[in-house]
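Design a sequence for this backbone.
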């Protein structure tokens, strides 16, 4: 949280994207659409600007780097929008990082993971997240930013 000149509190959000999401817009457009990660990050920054909050974006294909980003967010961010990609369905390490960091997380997926293969129905993030948004494509990031800001406002 950053104090502005006018004495208002400005929330700071981390948009964290996991493995293979750097390929968005370049492969499998029938599943994940034609929008690139760059375009999604620009959308998030613009959404944050309109809402009066600071948005930082980070993507990694490495589980440990995502864990470290969640740890670091404890001192730098008020909330996280997390698309953990395939680690959603496997990573106890990410689940533990979220629990221990104590930074509220909204879980985000471009696709509706519950309408896809059974192995995608399980999420290790969901039990430690404020909530989950999935199936709305890039618009989901806008919805997630709105949801986390609402959550932060209510918990102030
Ligand atoms: O729907 C989502 O956002 C997912 O988190 C995407 C993950 C998938 O493993 C999750 O079950 C749901 C996969 C991201 C892979 O992204 C690609 C993008 C373009 C081409 C290939 C993969």
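Sequence:
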């Amino acid at each position: 949280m950053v104090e502005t000149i006018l004495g208002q509190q400005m929330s700071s959000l981390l948009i964290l994207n996991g493995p293979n999401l750097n390929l968005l817009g370049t492969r499998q457009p029938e599943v994940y659409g034609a929008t690139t990660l760059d375009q999604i990050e620009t959308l998030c920054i613009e959404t944050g600007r309109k809402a009066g909050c600071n948005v930082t974006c980070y993507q990694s294909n490495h589980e440990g780097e995502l864990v470290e980003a969640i740890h670091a967010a404890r001192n730098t961010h008020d909330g996280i929008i997390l698309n953990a990609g395939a680690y959603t369905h496997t990573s106890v390490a990410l689940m533990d990082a979220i629990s221990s960091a104590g930074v509220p997380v909204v879980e985000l997926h471009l696709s509706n993971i519950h309408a896809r293969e059974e192995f995608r129905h399980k999420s290790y993030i969901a039990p430690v997240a404020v909530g989950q948004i999935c199936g709305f494509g890039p618009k989901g990031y806008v919805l997630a930013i709105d949801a986390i800001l609402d959550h932060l406002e209510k918990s102030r």
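The pocket of CA2 is lined by residues 20-21, 23-24, 27-28, 32, 83, 85-86, 88, 109-111, 113, 120 (CB under 6 Å).
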